């Protein structure tokens, strides 16, 4: 069977040079926690990795947001499914990989430091990170993106320290998940159908969702929910979701140096050509033209949300 450690379509990977790690470990913050590698593997077919504790004692956080995978540790095999997370200890040998029929999409970070054991304790086996109305999954993944962007900007001391600070927060949202959910803004706790529907869309922006899934989430029939959404928002739920995905793609094009094929899986598109066509149809220019345009904001305002009412548009702009 074919095995791959990396090289997946749309993957992103940063490996911190050892000299930078050695320097950051001497700082007051870095000795507590430091990052060695960080990555995002979308639909990672044939992903396979072996960890030998004699070679490295680093911890590895794996957050599966789609598909399935597995890990074999302590002579036991555990299946890993969507919305599960685990932190693998550095002192043990283990093997993990992606399911051949439903390859996983994972965010992962290899790290160490004096506080690494504290944050990993209790997460040695797959732990469910539920998607509910207070989960704040999209916000947690935005933290990951900020950590990645900081490290991708260079390995200067302040970049590294800022990334570590963000990683402390990221781990805190997991270690104290109930408190993290409970501290969300009041806007995220509303039972309003429209806000709940938009919340579900933003939490699932990286995958394809159906009208059935959205209507089930808000507890209404498809026909009634569609009618309510159209009346309040001025467009259909799925069209709104498509526009929301394109808005997030615009954000990545503006604020990161990711390529189009790296952005696609983050906003739920499997095919970069199809994404580029969909983008151009709504925005009026290709993703590369948009990235180089000096009128990005005006273009988004004119083309991306022409049908959204002011009531809902405020919530979209804050995403």
* Tally of helical runs: 14
> What letter string, H or E per element, gives the SSE order?
EHEEEEEEEEHEHHHHHHHHHHHH
Strand order of the largest sheet: 1-2-9-4-7-10
Average pLDDT, all residues:
85
Separation, N- and C-terminal Cα atoms: 42 Å
Shape: globular
The percentage of residues in β strands lies in: 15-25%
What is the gyration radius calculated from CA atoms? 20 Å
Q: Decide which structural class fits the backbone.
A: alpha+beta
DSSP strand count: 10
Largest sheet: 6 strands, antiparallel
Helix fraction, binned, reads 40-55%
Uncertain stretches of 5 or more adjacent residues: 185-191, 305-319
Question: Your description of this structure?
Answer:
The chain has helices at residues 18-24, 116-120, 137-152, 157-175, 177-182, 193-203, 211-218, 222-233, 237-255, 260-263, 272-283, 287-292, 296-303, 310-317, and strands at 12-15, 34-41, 48-51, 59-66, 69-73, 76-80, 84-88, 94-98, 105-112, 127-128. By secondary structure, the protein is an alpha+beta fold. A 6-stranded antiparallel beta sheet has the order 1-2-9-4-7-10. The radius of gyration is 20 Å and the shape is globular. The N and C termini lie far apart (42 Å).
């Amino acid at each position: 069977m074919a095995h791959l450690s990396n090289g997946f379509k749309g993957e992103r990977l940063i490996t911190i040079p050892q000299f930078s790690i050695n320097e950051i470990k001497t700082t007051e913050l870095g000795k507590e926690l430091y990052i060695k590698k960080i990555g995002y593997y979308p639909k990672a077919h044939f992903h396979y990795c072996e960890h030998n504790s004699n070679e490295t004692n680093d911890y590895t956080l794996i957050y599966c947001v789609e598909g399935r995978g597995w890990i074999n540790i302590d002579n036991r095999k555990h299946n890993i499914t969507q919305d599960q997370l685990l932190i693998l200890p550095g002192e043990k040998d283990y093997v993990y990989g992606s399911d051949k029929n439903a390859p996983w999409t994972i965010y992962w970070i290899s790290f160490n430091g004096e506080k690494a054991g504290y944050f990993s304790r209790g997460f040695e086996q797959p732990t469910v990170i539920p998607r509910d109305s207070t989960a704040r999954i999209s916000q947690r993944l935005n933290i990951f993106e900020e950590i990645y962007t900081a490290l991708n900007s260079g390995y200067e001391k302040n970049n590294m320290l800022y990334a570590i600070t963000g990683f402390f927060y990221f781990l805190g949202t997991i270690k104290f998940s109930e408190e993290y959910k409970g501290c969300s803004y009041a806007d995220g706790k509303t039972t309003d159908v429209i806000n709940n529907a938009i919340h579900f869309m933003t939490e699932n922006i990286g995958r394809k969702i159906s009208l059935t899934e959205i209507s089930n989430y808000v507890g209404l029939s498809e026909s009634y929910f569609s009618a309510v959404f159209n009346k309040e928002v001025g467009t259909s739920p799925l069209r709104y979701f498509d526009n929301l995905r394109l808005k997030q793609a615009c954000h990545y094009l503006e604020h990161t140096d990711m390529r189009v094929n790296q952005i696609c899986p983050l906003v739920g598109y499997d095919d970069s050509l199809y994404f580029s066509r969909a983008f151009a149809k709504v925005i009026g220019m290709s993703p590369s033209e948009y990235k180089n345009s000096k009128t990005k904001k005006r273009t988004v305002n004119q083309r991306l949300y022409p049908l959204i009412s002011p009531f809902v548009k405020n919530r979209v702009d804050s995403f």
